[in-house]
Amino acid sequence: MMKSQTYPPFTQEEFAAEIREFLFIQAGHIAHGCNAEAATIFLGIPHEFSPTEGVKDEIINQIDLSRFECWKFLRAAYDFAFQVGDSWHYDEDTNIDLVAFMQGMSIYAISGEYSPYLVPDSKCRHVIDLAIGRFYLEEPHAQSITVRQLALLADMSEAAVRNSLSAEKMKAPVEADAARTWLQGRKGYVPTKVEDNRRADWELTLKVSINGGRFSSGLESILKRMGLTAETAAEQAGIAPSDIAMLLDGPSGLPDLGAVKRLGELLQADVPNFVGQAVEAAMRQQK
Known about the structure:
The chain has about 290 residues and is mainly α. It is built from 15 helices and no strands.
């Protein structure tokens, strides 16, 4: 594996092209095992599959990935693997989906051609192996990090990783803590933006909870998630308990903007949005 000159080493669209090919191969197996009608429903494009016919680029290029649920977690895997875009969307459920997808991949097309995933340096396998390895690196799981995953994380060849581990008297697979320490000394390693990811995830959670005309119930849910009562939240924010009670009960008048601002800061919210939603909820309550 050559050290990449650009990062990510390939675009999301190049990755998507391999996913389209895989879905075409899956459709061929559906047609072969069931019928062409079922394959058409799956693929969204009518085609008469045959074991004597190879992979058809003109069909593959028409596949609309937005029809497929798998594209949601595969796209999240690409962002997380390379720490670009919305990398914070990748979580344990996404990882489970990705592992299940990997285990269900067909090795060959019905015509005998290799699936993209069978090629070790395929873009599809690169993303999946890297995303899973990065997840195990950062999350408290029992799984260790394999040589393959370390090589992708460090942007090194597997042979170079084995030589390095041997020189440092480390055995593969490597426990996550030791792997993180080892990776810190590798020039090609792109660290996971753990805090940035958590921050973005929390901001989205807050926005989803308090937006859409349900500020009071959303605030109650957030306080419970943080282990705060109205009293402890008021004390930590330096505001009166009545200020929070007013927000939780449904305001009878406009709230104290300074108190709402301090509460938003305590919750690590997007403060302008938090204050705006509180005011909007109050104004709607008065109608």
